[in-house]
Design a protein that fits this description.
753 residues; eight-stranded parallel β-sheet; seven-stranded mixed β-barrel; 14 helices; 37 strands; 18% helix; 28% strand; globular
């Protein structure tokens, strides 16, 4: 089982429409809809997709072009017409923001106006309420798992990995003073926004909140999430780290250590959430500021009418306009149909999260033997605490540890007249909260507590203060049930709770799908999501300086976990690929990242067995080196045939385009691996095709379900080889029967009236 650390371990929440950053939490946070504001799509195609302005292949929109300027004027005229319409027909409504790149839309504060009223305006194509989203945490162990070092070698070293590529971090800000973002040696850059918060590495600092002035919000990194994400993307190579006094034995690096970063703060101050327009505004500005990749470690639960349609479309349109957008899948797993939005967008580069087998643990020593422990949120351990061990038994306990629970009333199992004065008490988990247990031990005279877990095989975890009463001042740590069974034989022996943690590696805990990582398929359209997996549990990265007191010379660092922490691994990978291949389109970069992933490594979060279930692991674990060396790009990166009736069966077909993105002519062989006997047969007419550099070919893939095929999720793998060596693979999927399918199609807006 995974060892939890005493340092901060949080869950990254996806905040999309009312989005939040993604970090796993004790209980899933529900996405909400802002019933007081709307996103209104207006007539006129956005710049990203308009035939007049959409960029040529592998290029971006030229905002200095006369045609682009003219189209922006024309779109603005539509918005002005809508503003006049509001004044005449809905005078209480107020436009709060405008966007014309990814979507042509405005944010509207309703002030009692209904969506039905807005939809009657002649220039309105679609209107929906806004959603609330939240943030969905060299020799780095996580970088080794995804072969980042090999990718750096392929591009000429860490100094070239992502060099010149701009990555927008749409999150909670970046602390540019962190050593990760030291700009020594970087060329002078044009800096935008609040330049007191930028340097030549973090080149933009902007805030997005329609009440920013009212509340005094700026782009400062108050929350830790965005700085942590940014460090995973592009922390300078080999930056020393110390966490809670523990020297990390490797020097962390970002996936693309020489990329440039942009701070697009949609979670300013202590807001913790963002509305649809905040995120759309940030996406548009990042694109217009010239950024190549966007990281959106945020999301929210499916909320039809809460901005999902436009946010998904904005991501798709920016991909078409040559910006790669990496998005977290969400932290609502395990379970099918739990993927969040906008990670459900078809052209999003959607990240699932896997584990990294390392942590910082504290130790307790009993009678000369060390045991792993996790420090609770009670008294601070400033120096090693040594005292006799007092085992407090309870033979009648229903829990296997058979120890006192120390709950009120009374203090169970404590012999009459006895006390724990000057001793470290061994107690058991169960029934009442940890604050009560530790408080009772302190009242009885204990100087410390060792708490024994009650669940076999479960790792110890951080015991939290209940926040309802004064916090106990004695230290308390938790050990596993198995270790507790040994420790309880040492009543009266010397015991020590050690102050300083120890960095440990646990190879057996590596490449397990994180239990919180959301699964596909997407609601309604049944797409395969996540697209690909990256390390996302127990990730070490940078924290803003004010989160450490005192601040070490190495800066502030911590562990975080969540699909928020997996997403920047993908954004960093995209930056390395784009830096190596500036002529590749965003779709080709996305395919290079997804379709070269490592298979046969990731394990099921519940069984521990290796799984290739595409709705859990996508195409597999990302491989940065193979992404850089990709030969063929596939579009789409995976194929869903939707739903087939289990009673009548049926066949489905779809097209896949393969493009030779190498510099040499190659002969590609296309085949389907379908080894399961599950009532569905997948196939292709692909065969063999020879393509010159840049040339493409289209082939068909099919799924045929027999009558009365068993309900369930069915899949196969499309494989592409050159000279007998696989160069790409994509997952194929169909749902037979209704299964767990939820109704509705999030990509289809409701009728206008």
């Amino acid at each position: 089982m995974k060892r939890r650390t005493a340092v901060a371990v949080s869950v990254a929440l996806l905040l999309i429409f009312g989005l939040v950053p993604f970090v796993p939490a004790a209980a899933p946070a529900a996405s909400t809809i802002d019933s007081g504001s709307a996103i209104v799509q207006l007539s006129g195609a956005p710049l990203a997709t308009s035939p007049k302005t959409r960029p040529a292949k592998a290029h971006k929109i030229d905002f200095a072009n006369a045609a682009v300027k003219a189209e922006r004027v024309a779109l603005k005229a539509v918005r002005e017409d809508f503003r006049r319409w509001l004044k005449a027909n809905a005078p209480k409504a107020r436009i709060t923001s405008e966007m014309d790149i990814a979507v042509h839309a405005v944010g509207v504060e309703l002030n009692g106006t209904t969506l039905a009223t807005l939809r009657t305006a002649p220039m309105v194509r679609y209107a929906e309420l806004q959603g609330i989203f939240r943030s969905a945490a060299h020799d780095d162990p996580d970088l080794s798992l995804i072969h980042a070092n090999e990718a750096w070698s392929a591009v000429g070293g860490a100094a070239n990995a992502g060099a010149g590529v701009k990555v927008a971090v749409i999150d909670s800000g970046i602390d540019a003073t962190h050593p990760c973002f030291d700009d020594t040696g970087y060329a002078p850059q044009t800096q935008l926004g609040d330049t007191s918060l930028t340097n030549n590495k973090v080149i933009v600092a902007k805030v997005f909140h329609n009440n920013a002035k009212k509340f005094g919000f700026d782009a400062s990194a108050v929350d830790s999430h965005g700085t942590h994400v940014a460090g995973t993307i592009a922390c300078n190579a080999h930056t020393p780290a110390v966490i809670n006094g523990v020297d990390i034995p490797y020097d962390p690096s970002g996936v693309a250590p020489h990329a440039l970063l942009g701070n697009y703060n949609v979670f300013p101050g202590d807001t913790g959430s963002a509305r649809s327009e905040d995120i759309l505004d940030a996406m548009d500005e990042a694109y217009e500021d010239g950024f190549d990749v966007a990281n959106m470690s945020l999301g929210g639960a499916r909320n039809d009418g809460g901005g999902a349609f436009l946010l998904d479309n904005a991501i798709d349109n920016l991909d078409l306009a040559n910006m790669v957008v990496a998005v977290a899948a969400g932290n609502e797993g395990p379970g099918y149909f739990t993927v969040h939005y906008p990670g459900a967008a078809p052209r999003a580069l959607t990240a699932g999260a896997s584990t990294v087998g390392h942590s910082i643990i504290n130790l307790v020593t009993v009678d000369g033997t060390n045991y792993e422990a996790v420090v609770g949120d009670f008294g601070t351990i400033t120096s090693d605490l040594t005292a006799p061990l007092a085992v407090v038994p309870d033979a009648d306990s229903i829990y296997p540890h058979k120890l006192s629970l120390a709950c009120d009333p009374p203090f169970e199992g404590l012999p009459a007249g006895a006390d724990l004065t000057g001793k470290i008490a061994l107690l058991g988990r169960g029934d009442c909260d940890f604050t009560v247990k530790v408080r009772n031990a302190q009242i009885a005279g204990a100087v410390g507590v060792i708490m024994v877990n009650r669940v076999p095989g479960e790792a110890p975890f951080v015991m939290s203060h209940n926040g309802l009463e004064a916090k106990p001042t004695i230290p308390a740590v938790m050990v596993s049930l198995e270790d507790g069974a040994i420790i309880d034989d040492h009543d009266g022996d010397s015991s020590t709770i050690h102050a300083l943690g120890v960095y440990v590696t646990k190879p057996e805990d590596t490449n397990l799908m994180a239990g919180f990582s959301s699964w596909g398929p997407t609601h309604g359209d049944l797409l395969i999501k996540p697209d690909v997996v990256a390390p996302g549990a127990d990730i070490i990265s940078s924290f803003p300086r004010h989160h450490c007191d005192p601040l070490p010379p190495e800066g502030c660092w911590s562990f975080l976990g969540g699909t928020s922490m997996a997403t920047p691994h993908l954004a960093g990978t995209a930056a390395v690929v784009r830096g190596a291949h500036p002529d590749w389109t965003a779709a080709q970069v996305r395919s290079a990242v997804v379709n070269t992933a490592q298979q046969g490594l990731l394990r099921h979060p519940e069984t521990g067995a290796v799984t290739d279930d595409a709705q859990i692991v996508g195409a597999g674990l990302v491989d940065v080196a193979d992404s850089v060396g990709a030969t063929g790009a596939l579009d789409p990166v995976s194929t869903s045939f939707g739903n087939v009736s289990s009673g009548s069966g049926g066949s489905r077909s779809s097209s896949v385009v393969i493009t030779n993105i190498s510099s040499a002519t190659n002969t590609f062989t296309v085949s389907v691996t379908d080894t399961s006997n599950d009532g569905v047969q997948f196939g292709t007419n692909g065969g063999t095709v020879t393509l010159a550099p840049g040339a493409s070919a289209t082939f068909k893939v099919t799924a045929v379900a027999t009558k009365r095929a068993a309900d369930g999720h069915k899949q196969a793998t499309l494989r592409v080889a050159v000279g007998g060596t696989e160069v790409a693979h994509a997952m194929l999927y169909v749902l037979v029967g209704e299964g767990e399918r939820a109704p509705g199609r999030h990509m289809l807006p409701p009728p206008k009236a």
